[in-house]
């Protein structure tokens, strides 16, 4: 288990369905199976499987069909990507422009 670099919340890294690493929340989220109609959420098993479902609030956890992990969306992560560092050649050119 590790911590998010921006908000410090505990996260777990798993391999998603496409084989890439993805961060998920450490805690479990109650869910109800999706009936196939309308909008749904995606939760993840610890093995990287995907469950299409409807997320329930904590006070309705007794109605849940199961519990799974939610994808980690950091509230403090900047919305832009960090710029690529300049190469030595680009730094040299920038000095003389």
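Q: What amino acid sequence fits the structure above?
A:
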């Amino acid at each position: 288990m590790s911590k998010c670099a921006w908000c410090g919340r505990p996260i777990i890294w798993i391999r998603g369905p496409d084989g890439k690493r993805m961060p998920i929340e450490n805690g479990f989220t109650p869910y109800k199976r999706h009936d196939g109609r309308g909008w749904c959420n995606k939760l993840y098993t610890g093995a990287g499987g995907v469950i299409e479902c409807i997320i329930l609030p904590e006070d309705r956890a007794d109605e849940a069909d199961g519990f799974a992990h939610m994808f980690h969306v950091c509230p403090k992560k900047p919305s832009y990507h960090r710029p690529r560092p300049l190469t030595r050649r680009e730094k040299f050119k920038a000095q003389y422009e």
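Q: And what stands out in the fold?
A: DSSP finds one helix and seven strands in the chain.
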